[in-house]
Design brief:
The chain is of the alpha+beta class and about 250 residues long. It has two domains: about 140 residues, Jelly Rolls; about 100 residues, Homeodomain-like (Arc Repressor Mutant, subunit A, Orthogonal Bundle). It has ten helices and ten strands. The strands form two sheets. It has a six-stranded antiparallel sheet. It has a four-stranded antiparallel sheet with strand order 2-7-4-5, with no helix packed on it. Strand 4 and strand 5 form a beta hairpin. Helix 2 runs antiparallel to helix 3 and helix 8 packs across helix 9.
């Protein structure tokens, strides 16, 4: 593996930010550099080599070099979009397939600091920031898909119910009761097909719905009720656990 030790990281890493209005679209393309893309305030809707990917604010997408991808902004509010280009020599340290990468609060603030300081930072200071950024990206937890899908004849109709906003107020047990399978059997299937429990999959579906509704103007109180929470504080705690932000912070 070729080393980057003797090369300035500023020549190997580019950090850019963009703002996209609703329905702005990035046409399908591929690059010789790898891309790490994520949104600071909304959901990115991607098609990567024919596969649909969603990326909420607490998850980014690692897209390897030479991988065709397209993106569309779905949010009503402007989407604050971050793109980190990695030189091919750095791609050797990352997966060869697309991954959903978990974004820690520290990584989020680090990228904001890099963008803020870039014009005024000395070369040495900027190199240090980029080295920390590279280390954070390399060690961040990565998954095949944020909200994986399946064509499995048993799981597919169950997932349709679990992701239906009209069913969010029902408990998981209430939804599964109508399907003639034991919870143990369904848990085994979900781990096998989705690499997630059905409870975790449903929570992620709720988060995607909540982000979309917040940007559409829904109140926290109404969202809490729609998702089955008796108190807004419980919904806020749930939302922050998954996104690292409160609903109010996401709006800001």
């Amino acid at each position: 593996m070729k080393s980057y030790a003797d090369t300035d990281l500023s020549q190997l890493i580019e950090v850019h930010e963009y703002f996209y209005a609703q329905n702005d679209e990035i046409a399908a393309h591929s690059c010789i550099w790898g891309d790490f893309n994520f949104s600071l305030n909304g959901i990115l809707d991607y098609e990567i080599e024919g596969i649909h990917h969603l990326s909420p604010p607490n998850y980014g997408l690692w897209i390897p070099a030479h991988t065709a991808h397209a993106c569309i902004a779905r949010e009503i509010q402007p989407t604050h979009y971050i793109c980190i280009h990695l030189h091919p020599v750095l791609c050797n340290y990352f997966p060869t397939t697309t991954k959903a990468v978990e974004i820690s609060p520290f990584l989020r603030h680090l990228i904001k600091e890099i963008l803020r300081q870039k014009p005024a930072t000395t070369a040495v200071e900027y190199e240090h920031l980029l080295q920390v950024l590279l280390d954070q990206l390399r060690t961040a937890p990565a998954y095949e898909h944020y909200l994986p899908q399946t064509q499995h004849r048993v799981l597919k109709p169950i997932l349709q119910q679990l992701s239906n906003p009209q069913c969010f107020a029902k408990s998981l047990q209430q939804i599964l009761h109508k399907f003639q399978f034991t919870e143990r059997h369904l848990l085994r299937l979900s781990q096998q097909e989705l690499q997630l429990s059905l409870a975790e999959w449903r929570n992620r579906a709720k988060i995607l719905y909540a982000i979309d509704q917040l940007h559409a103007g829904s109140t926290v109180k109404k969202l809490a009720y729609d998702l089955g929470y008796q108190h807004s504080s419980s919904f806020i705690e749930f939302f922050k656990r998954y996104t690292g932000q409160t609903p109010a912070q996401l709006r800001e």
